[in-house]
Amino acid sequence: EVQLVESGGGLVQPGGSLRLSCAASGFIFSDYWMSWVRQAPGKGLEWVANIKQDGSHTYYVDSLKGRFTISRDNAKKSLYLQLNSLRAEDTAVYYCARFRGRGWFDPWGQGTLVTVSS
Amino acid sequence: QSVLTQPPSASGTPGQRVTISCSGSSSSIGSNTVNWYQHVPGTAPELLIYSDDQRPSGVPDRFSGSKSGTSASLAISELQSEDEADYYCAAWDDSLNGVLFGGGTRLTVL
Questions:
Q1: Cα(B17)–Cα(A118) distance, integer angstroms
Q2: Does residue A103 carry a pLDDT above 90?
Q3: Is the pLDDT score of B45 beyond 80?
Q4: Residues A30, A54: Cα–Cα separation, whole Å
Q5: C-beta of residue A93 within 8 angstroms of C-beta of residue A46
């Protein structure tokens, strides 16, 4: 069974940092692009970032460039998202997803909640 | 501005057919395929339709997708109470070099 499990969310103060992880199983992780998508409370889904199979190419939503970094470790079958200089508006559930191209994400993890508050 | 526009809400009674629209631009839907997701709050979003009109295995054929020009639609026939959820369209945008999601449509089964 293809499965993605996120971890690492929690409560962090404004200006702080957090590293999210996503453990993949049930498929050849190194064969696929991977992504992070988030959903703020009461809002819709927002694409955050993509990373190529070997990690050589990454893409970010313009509004987050420079603060968030996507990375992966194929040996550990894991995807990561480093969140820096966090703001209240970054409060959201962050989902890990396998990226099949052109807006096609399948499957998705259950998500991990990040709350930015003092 | 690069956006995908969906109606915020839709509703229907059991057994009815409902459609949800998604309007984009030449750089998004006009140049790329559209995908649809079902999201029940508190759970993982699920892929319903990919590449405009393709259904993944396991998705009932009550769900169908279509596209024309810079707009796309999701149709749900034989509406069931379990279809109550939020529905999102998504597409790549060539001018943004990234993925756009629609604002989401909350479907209520009356």
A1: 47
A2: no
A3: yes
A4: 7
A5: no
